C-alpha cells in the first residue's frame, strides 16, 4: 500500500547503532594524509561524529516511508518496489529503473519523479509514464533470495508483466542494474521495447584482430582501473564472506567501505561533500546498517564471478547508452555495438557513477528522449 514502511526500526536498533559508534576501535594512524591509501580517516571521523551526534534517522525514515512503496510476492521472493503513477495526460511507455552498488532504490527517486510527472520539472506532460523502481534482492528493503543463482532479471520481468500487467516496457540500469537490464532485454525482446544503460557488458566473443585503436585505449583504461581501483570488486567476487562480518559488525567499517567509492567514482573533484550531503551519505549507511544488508549486497558480485549469473551474449532491442565522464568506464561506440543494437549514444558533460543522484535532470531527460524516439507506440497499463 502507498506510504507503507519498507523497514521497521526500533529504538533498541538505534541505541545499538549509537553504542557501536561510540565504542569504535579506531586503527592506529599511518603517516599518510588524504585518500591515497583508502578512506581519509579525518573525513571518516568527521562523518562518524555527525552520525552519532547530529544525524536524525527518524526524519529520514519519515521521508522514506512517505514514498509510494508496494510489495510483491513473486515465485517465493518478496520484492519491495516504488511505483510512481503518471500525471494526467501521460501516454509514455512504462519504465523500469534499477540501481547499482553501493546504492539503493532511493537513489532513483528523483529520476522517477521526473519521468512520471515531467510537467513539474518543465517537461511535456504527454511524456509522463508509470515508473517502477524495485529494490534489489539482498540490498536494502528486499530480502536476499534463498538460493544462489536465481536470476534477478526474470524476477523483474515477472514483476512488470505478471504482477503489474504491463505488456511491454522500457528498462534502465546502471552498474549492477545495467547487467540486469541487459539480461532482461536479451531474454525478453518482445516485451522490452528498449533499454537505457549507464554501463555495458563486454562482448562475449571477439576477434582481437578487429579491435580498433579506440577500443584498445578503452581496454587499457579498464585494466588501469582494475589495478588501482578494483580491489573491492576482487574481494567481493572471490571472498565476500571474509569481508562481510567486518562491515556487518562495525557501522564505521561499513561507512568507510562505501564512502571511499562515493568520492572515487563521482564528479566531486576530490571533495565528496560537494556532491553528497551528510544526510545523504549517512542515510545510505544507516539503511544498509539497519537492514543488515551490506554482506548480502556482495552476492551479485560472487554469483557473477562464479558463473551463476546468465551471460550477456547479444542484445537485439534498441539500446541507448549514456556515459557520465567520472563513471568507472567510458566505452566507445564500436565496443558497445559488438553486443547491443545501439541507437543512441550520449556523452554527458558532467557526473559520475552515482548519476541518478548527481545529475538526475540530465539522466531523466536522456531516458525521456530515448523513449520518444522508439518506433513502438506508447503503451499504458
Characteristic key phrases:
single chain; 381 residues; alpha/beta; Rossmann fold; 15 helices; 8 strands
Mean pLDDT: 96
CA-to-CA gap between the ends? 18 Å
Report helical residue fraction: 40-55%
Portion in strands: 5-15%
Looking at the structure, the CATH topology of one domain is: Rossmann fold
Q: Look at the structure and give the CATH class of one domain.
A: Alpha Beta
CATH H-tier superfamily of one domain: Alpha/Beta hydrolase fold, catalytic domain
Shape: globular
> Which structural category do the helix and sheet elements fall into?
alpha/beta
Name the helix and strand elements from N-terminus to C-terminus, one letter apiece: HHHEEEHEHEHEHHHHHHEHEHH
Give the neighbour order of strands across the main sheet: 1-2-4-3-5-6-7-8
* Gyration radius over CA: 20 Å
How can the largest sheet be summarized?
Answer: 8 strands, mixed
Uncertain parts: none
Second-tier CATH architecture of one domain: 3-Layer(aba) Sandwich
What does this molecule look like?
The chain is of the alpha/beta class. It has a domain at 63-201 and 209-214 and 313-373: Alpha/Beta hydrolase fold, catalytic domain (Rossmann fold), CATH 3.40.50.1820. Helix content is 41%, strand content 13%. The chain has an 8-stranded mixed beta sheet with strand order 1-2-4-3-5-6-7-8, sandwiched between helices. α4 (109-116) links the parallel β3 and β4. It is globular and about 60 Å long.
